[in-house]
Structure formats: structure tokens, C-alpha cells
């Protein structure tokens, strides 16, 4: 017992002695502090005297890395009275090139008058993650002359952020250039580091035949997020070239300018010939007429049918479609008729049309079941976005419908969008007249990391539009956490239209769903989970009652997609259990799907156990399957597509198999073989084979053989001219000499001058053309732009250059602003007295060089952080002379910052 008391007394004396030796306490006001987006840090340290005597000493503040600079006084002498507490402010700055993956600390040490450190405190600095990857195409115009030449695809990738990044640089080639089609480079780039990628591609025989082609390159993060894309334009070097127009057609009303003839024959099909075509006639630069048609001949009926015909007349502001047209508004109809669109202003257009409700354009008038006509406008910029007035006549039901539909944009900002739709209508029939109404909203809102979206509407039972008797409330709210995302979704749909000509009770149905969504993104993988409650109500024709069914369901899926290997696969499971009473033997139901795709091959399998919704349950009861064993459905499918022999031969194979508990096995095998005879002429053979289904004896087989000719738009108004360009070397005495073997670009097409310094471009349409000679360190010519209206010979004179070079450096003091003293990428411009400008950028070491013709210039440096620096002796007058290089250096002086002193009141204990 006595020994324990001595031990306790010793411990108390030790702590008392230590407290007397260290009467000063040192700590940061916060354990950690964040740096703002510019790297600025504002903190404070607390020093307190808990003794009964005055204390004096020194505080030293420092960072644990050269990237962390202390701006405030790093050494401070303090005197603290007994019971006093003082605060020492700390201002610091982090170099924006500092990696966010390293630990940075501010360290404060407290020493007495004998320079003995008695206490140390540290504060962790939180750096904002900044992902910033830049892609620069080092040479987007590449040339070749013959087979075996090598083109060099160069790209500079820069990491200007503070995070290490794993990247994929994917180059996509035309098939004739590279059989693999893609080349992927995997890159790991540290913060503030650059890398230069060079991909060499040998020019093959098939590539030479292309003459000109494009190569695209895409830069992606490791998880597949897009960063940037660039394009390499590759041309063969020729002194003479004939203009070729792009024969691709991007008009949405035509797939392409083609004519196709095919023959179909086989078992259980109607043998036929079919002629399909589309073409364009350009009457002027802004006026064209397009025609499409589909004519079929049936052998058995010995009859021609014009299944589709459409004429399209389009000018700068007016478009007219006549023939088989589609009305995609509130009635969504197709038939024969005419419609027009007139652009009044850039943002306002007027529409109108008439549609006769028939299938073929050649149908007799007595086959029509009515017509629909409409007029209205749309606007892209105004609050009143859309207004359409419709009149519809239906001979079959003897109904006349009138409908007026409008859309309004009530609010439109990047974070909140609100749109309202409304419609009113009347239905006139022999029995009665009915009024109808429609109202709906679309809304989107974003706040911080929350997103809300809704698409809701109500339509009365006698509304005349396609959404007659339909009501919907569909909303979702989502919260994103970096790679995670959580959401709540709700969907309510009620359908109960009323008709004057039939019983409408059998059309009633309703569904209500509420659930949660979760997703997690892992680089090339995505995981999704979605539990939900579902209520369904459907009309049962058999019982003439409304069936009601509740279920709990869970949807899960996992997807993998590798941009580099071309491999992708997915697995999904929809699992459910019916809560309400059903006539099924098993309430459990699920559907399992799995698929994989690798380059040219796709394969998938699906298995369904039990009926998965109320509609399937009711429909099966009509067929008498509901009381048999549990329904199952197995589906297997595969696809293969590939091109061979330098893209001349194409093969497509499809296979499909399904087996259900209610039908026999069904097999389907399809194939297509294509051969490209010429650049614009193809032949193909395709086959379709179907076996089984509801009966084992079902069999359908046919073969289709066809030819496809691609057409060029006909432009009778267009005249063709020849442009000849002659390039000369011009010395100081203005003597001209032919410049042979010089590369010249005309609208990005590459040429090489012959021994007379000439190139020739034939069959050019009326247009403007940019002509540029590839300059080097000795000779220079400005870019010329001409409008070609006749056969023209244009001369370009290369002038000899001189060298203007120098470097930049910084001048600063202890009180200067803390900014990045970046030597690279600073812009320097030399402008001549005639207004011509020549621009260059400094290297990593701060050097620059310009190759410019003899002249008088104003040389100007445009520095970064211009608000914090001054350039000493900027905008210098310089006169250059041939063979007399000049050196001009710039000094960038960093401005001093304004020092503000803040006083903190002492706090007495």
C-alpha cells in the first residue's frame, strides 16, 4: 500500500514539473483547413499562457513542401502576459501544380529565448481536386506520295490539373488504311506533366486508292469519360487534282441518293420484284427537289403497287413535302397528302398540311377513311413555343374533331426548366358532341448535386388527341455522390378513354410504380439496383371485370464496356413476387438476361420464369394456358458482321432460337453477303429462314438478290472551273524563281508543285477557296482567299524570312503576389505596319522564336496573370533584315501585394 502511494505521488510531481516547464500551449484553430480554387490559405494559430509569469519566445511557421509557400511573417517574436491568449494569423499559398495526392502540412514550432523548441503543432491542408487534361494535335494535315510512305500521327497530351490520370488515346482508321481499325495507347500522366505520342502508319495500296481520308483520335479517361477529340486530314500529294464532291446525303428525309433493284423468291412468301430509289436535283445553291419511291411487282397477282412516293421541294426558307407523308403531332397519322414548313425568322416557322387517310398513294378515293388538316407555328426563342390547330374527319365513325394545342416555356435557365402544354378539343358525332381538354408540365431542376425531373399530364376522356383519356404523373429525384448515385422514382399512369362508337370500358387500365434507384460506376463497369413496388389494373375481357395485381420487384444489372479491347458484357436480373391473390401456381417470377459482344460478334441469352406482368397473365387466360405448368421462355441469339478484302466483301449472320412452355421451338437464321463492285455499285444476296413457332410445320424461306447504285445529286446550275496556282521564290530585288516541290493546301487538300512551281485543281464549283503554302524556317507566304468565278491563275510569292528570338524571365520581391511563374505557353505577337500578325508561344524554358519576312514590327508579350504583372519594355519596335537575326528578351515584373495588418484582441483567462 505504501509503495502504491509513493508511485502515485511521483506521477503527480512529474506532471506538475512538466506543467511548470511548459506553461505555453500551442495549437491551430482548426485541425485542417481547405485551400480555395486559387490555392490561397487563410488560417490562424492560438498561443496561450497558463502560467503566472510573463513569457516571451519565437514562433516559426513553415510548410512541409516547396509547393506550400508561407506569405505571412514566418518568424514572429511574441510576449504573452499571464492568463493571456493570442492568435497569430497565417496566410499561405499552394502552387496550383501541386498534386492533390500528396499530404501537405503547415508546421508551427514554438521556441523559448534559448532557441529550444518546446512545442510543435501541425495543420493539414486540403487541396481541391482539379482534373484538367489538354489535347493538342501537333500536325493535323498529313501527306503521302506513294505506297510504303509513313505518316506520323502526333499528339501532345498535357496534364494541367493536380491529379494523376490514367488515359486512353484511341485512333480510328479507315478500314483500307488499317485492318484493325483502331489503335489504343494507354497513358499514365502525373500532375503538371506532358507526353508526346507518335503513332506511325504505313500507307498501303488500298490507302493510296483513297487519295484523301480522315483519321480520328479520341482521348478518354480510364473509366471511359470523354476528354477531347481531334482529326487528322490525310491527303496524297499531287500536282494535278480533280474536284470530288462528298456523295453522302445527310438530309433526314432520305437515307441516301441510291437506286436499288431486288428480287424476292422462296417458300411461304409472295415472289416479287422491288425497285427503290431516291435522288436529288439541285436547281440552285439553296433550292433542291428530292424524289423517293418504292415500286413493287407481285408475281402471283401480276400487279404493280407504288407503296411509297415522296416529293420534297426545299428552298432557303420553305419546304414542301407531297406524297406519302407523316403527321407527327397530336393525331400521329400517315397517308397521302401535302405539308409545308415556312421559316419566317431564324426562330419562328409556320407549318400546315393536308393528309388523306389512305395507305397507298395510288388508292382510289373510296378507300379513304377521312382526312386531317392542320396549321400552326413553332418558336425556339419565345415563351409561346408552339401552337397547332387541327381538324379531323373520320368517315368510318362519322366523327368530326377540332383540336387546338399549345406549348409554353414558363422558365428556362441552366438549373431550372419549366414547360407547360395545354389543349382543348371538340368531338362532333351523330350521338352527341363532347368537349375535351389536355394539360401537362415538363420540369427539370438542379440544385447542387440534386436533380429533379417530372413529366406529367392529364387528358379528359373525350380529348380528341392521341393521348385521349390518358393521365400520367412521372417524377424522379436523384442525388450524385461522385461515383455513386441514389434516386427515388414514381410513375402513375391511368388510361380511361371514352368513345361514341363502341364500349369504352374494356380500354381501362392503370399502373402505379414507386421505387429506388442506385448506380455505382467503376471505371469501365456500371452496377445498377432498383427495388420497386408495382400495382397494375387491367380490364379482363373474359370476366368483364377489372383485375388488380400488386407485386414487389427488384431489377439489377451489371455492365462492362472496354473501349480499348472492344469487349463488353452485361448481366441483368428482374426478380419479382406477386403480393395479391392470382390464379398462378407460383407467385415468384423473374427474367435473367446475359450478353457479350466482342468486336464483330454479339451473343445473348434470356430466360423468363412465370408471367412478369398483369397483361401476360390475362392474355394467357384467354388461350387457356393459365392453369397449366408455370410459363417459361428461353431465348438465344447471336450476330456476326465483318468486312473482308479491303472492305469489298461484307458478311452479316444472325441466328435466333426461342422455346416456351406454350409453343414449339422457333428457329430463325438470316444472312447477307455484300460485294462492292465499284466505289458506288454493290450487289448483295440475303436469306431469311424461319422454322417452327406455334406449329412445328411452320416454315418460311426466301432469298433476296439485289443491286444498289449510289447516285450523285444532279446540279444543272453548277459550272466547273480550273484553278491554277504558281508559287515563286522572291528575293530582296523582287526577282521571281519557280518554287518546285512546295506543299500547297487548297481548302485542306494537299498539292505539291511541279518543276515550274505550278499546281492545278480542275472541276471546281463556284465557291471561296483558301490557298496556303506550307511555310518553313527560310521562306514564308501569307494565306490567300479567293472567290472562284472563272478559270483562274493565281500567283503566290514566297519571301525569305529572318529570325526573331529571345526569352522571358521574372522579376519579383518578397512582397510580390504569389502566382505561378510559368515560363511556357506565354503568347508573343509580332505585328507589321500593314497589320499582318505572326504569333508564337514560349517553350518550357521560356524561349521563343519567330521566322518572319523582312519588315518593321511591333513585338508584344501577352503574359498570363496580367492583373498581377507588368512587362518591362513591352510593345517594342523592331526592324528585321535578311541574314540578320535579332534577339529581344522580356522581363515580367510581378506586382507587390497590398499588405493589410489585422489586430487580434488578447483574451484573458
Describe the structure.
- The chain is mainly beta and 909 residues long.
- The strands form eight sheets. The chain has a 26-stranded antiparallel beta barrel. Strands 18, 45, 46, 49, 51, 53, 56, 58, 60 and 61 form a ten-stranded mixed beta sheet that branches.
- Strand 42 (666-678) and strand 43 form a beta hairpin.
- The longest helix has 20 residues, at 2-21.
Write the layout of secondary structure elements.
Blueprint lengths: L1 H20 L2 E5 L3 E3 L5 E10 L5 E9 L4 E3 L4 E6 L3 E11 L9 E8 L5 E10 L6 E5 L3 E4 L5 E10 L5 E8 L9 E8 L4 E9 L2 H6 L1 E10 L4 E11 L3 E3 L15 E10 L4 E11 L5 E11 L4 E12 L3 E10 L5 E11 L4 E9 L13 E10 L4 E11 L4 E14 L3 E13 L4 E15 L2 E10 L10 E12 L2 E12 L13 E14 L2 E16 L4 E17 L5 E12 L9 E11 L2 E9 L4 H9 L9 E13 L4 E12 L5 E13 L2 E12 L6 E12 L10 E10 L5 E3 L4 E4 L2 E4 L5 E7 L2 E7 L5 E2 L3 E5 L3 E20 L15 E6 L4 E5 L5 E7 L2 E7 L6 E4 L3 E4 L6 E2 L2 E5 L12 E2 L1
Parallel strand pairs: 2-9, 11-17, 18-49, 45-53, 53-60, 53-61
Antiparallel strand pairs: 1-3, 3-7, 4-6, 4-8, 5-7, 7-62, 8-9, 10-12, 12-15, 13-14, 13-16, 16-17, 19-20, 19-44, 20-21, 21-22, 22-23, 23-24, 24-25, 25-26, 26-27, 27-28, 28-29, 29-30, 30-31, 31-32, 32-33, 33-34, 34-35, 35-36, 36-37, 37-38, 38-39, 39-40, 40-41, 41-42, 42-43, 43-44, 45-46, 45-49, ...
